Amino acid sequence: MPVIDLISVSIIYVAAFAILLIGYLAAISSKDVIRLLISLEMMFGAIFMALIPLFSVAHLANTAFGIALVTIFASSGELLVLICAITILDLQKRDIHTSSISIGGDKL
Amino acid sequence: MLLLSALAGIAVVFALGVLLSKDNFYSALYMAATLVFVATVYAFFNLQPVFILILFVFVGAIGIVTVALAATYRSDPERQVSRLWAVPVAITAFFVSLAIATYSYSALNLQPVSSSAIEFELMNFIPLTEYMLLIVFLISLAILLLLSVLKMSVGGRS
User: Fold this and answer.
1) What single string gives the DSSP state of each residue in A8-29?
2) Å from A48 to nearest chain B CA?
3) Distance, in angstroms, between A103 CA and closest chain B CA?
4) With contact defined as beta carbons under 8 Å apart, do B35 and B54 qualify?
5) Residue A1: which pLDDT band, with cuts at 50, 70 and 90?
6) H-type helices in chain B, by residue range?
7) What is the dihedral of CA B34, B38, B44, B49, to 10 degrees?
């Protein structure tokens, strides 16, 4: 069985944190919604990477696999909705820049 | 550990490419490469099911749709970051390199701790009833997401 030590765990966490930080920076500096989508996918990638050490705990391995499964499908669904929102935004505004979005939320 | 460091390092470098590239198309390509290397770390630890899921679902479907979207809405990039940022970036890179070099030198003298070694186990996945519950939750979530898309598209038409 493969073994993971604390140095490997720290390498994984440092890389995950770096990718998450880069995702945040890309989201902050984004001027259009496609770049925002890319930065969100980066953040999810960082989350996937941060999940790896969970598999190393014997009694948490099954739970970790379940969490990874749910995270992958939920994030994929969320990103698909965001892609649909981008195309609808383009249909409505003929523009995909974040500056064209003036209000948010929904009416209940 | 060297291979793991290389994989994680390449993932971070590709992630930096996303941030530094001004063209969304190349940013999307770098993002897909980052996710491929994140998935490869899973493969490195012999977690092939998650590797396949990330590669097929996240990179293969969502990543490629993002690349196609970025290629469709491709425009001339405009510079967002001033060149003056190169100075603090260079200083930070110097200190980070110094810290990594110092740590690597001191890590050579560290004794391996047996209690820190953790074994992987990926057998006996959750029981069947909980697995079915998970599937039901996932289907419900997918239906809710599709309903929200329908609502958005109907709202877009009106």
Assistant:
1) HHHHHHHHHHHHHHHHHHHHHT
2) 7
3) 15
4) yes
5) very low
6) 2-20, 24-44, 48-53, 64-72, 86-107, 128-157
7) -120
Residue of B nearest to A13 (CA): B8
**Do A73 and A66 touch, CB atoms closer than 8 A?**
no
CB contact, 8 Å: A97 with chain B? no
For B89-118, what is each residue's pLDDT tens digit? 888 888 888 888 887 777 666 655 454 444
DSSP state of B116: G
Bridge partners (DSSP) of residue A32 are A97
Q: Tell which residue, B53, B90, B70, B95, has the closest CA to residue B18.
A: B70
Please report residues of B whose CB lies closer than 8 A to that of A73: 57, 138, 141-142
Residue B85, pLDDT above cutoff 60: yes
pLDDT at A46 over 90: yes
Instruction: Indicate yes or no: pTM above 0.80.
Output: no
Q: What are A16's two structure tokens? A: 């995950």
How far is it, in rounded angstroms, from Cα B142 to Cα A98? 27
Q: What is the pLDDT of residue B117?
A: 46
